Automatic annotation (TrEMBL):
NCBIfam families: hypD. Pfam families: HypD. GO terms for biological process: protein maturation. GO terms for molecular function: 4 iron, 4 sulfur cluster binding; carbon monoxide binding; iron ion binding. This is Hydrogenase formation protein HypD. PANTHER family: HYDROGENASE MATURATION FACTOR HYPD, HYDROGENASE PROTEIN ASSEMBLY PROTEIN HYPD.
Amino acid sequence: NSFLEKEKIDRGDIRIVYSTLDALKIAQNNFSKEVVFMGVGFETTSPTIASAVLKAQKDEINNFSVLSVAKIMPPAMKALLEGKEANIDGFICPGHVSAIIGSSPYNFIASKHKIPCVVCGFEPLDVLQSIYMLVKQIEDGRAEVEIQYERAVKPEGNKIALDKINEVFKVVDSDWRGIGNISLSGLEIKDKYGQFNA
């Protein structure tokens, strides 16, 4: 049993919610209880967590906080490349993360490490086309960042989402299960929103 499962069995009011805003609504309806949302995920989930913190501040919902364990993808990729056993021919980059951050954060992989990257969608044909694009780069001796998932990803990313992340979070060193500590790979709530930092 995990710690949360044990707490729920013993005495804890632990709930699974679909979104951060659902947790915020629970806090609004239960002012006598402290509601802590465990903020997990990558850049994909971070804008909604940031939005909930901003709404909690605006609406003075003081019984809501976030335990952020959110991660940032490019530093993890950098750590993989700098590992002693790195033998990577190419990256299929995550489409949903890239819909937020764009494709440009992967440029260092192509320019510095000379490894091709393709930002991929999630449909079977997306994956097949991305593999083809990656193999084509390798065969041609190219190392570029290409976007297969053009219907959702732009090089610059989603400015509104990125602005929310940058407003609420600061980038910190973070522990990754099974990997260890990766420099500047996590998101922690900034001090100015400290009352919402669990």
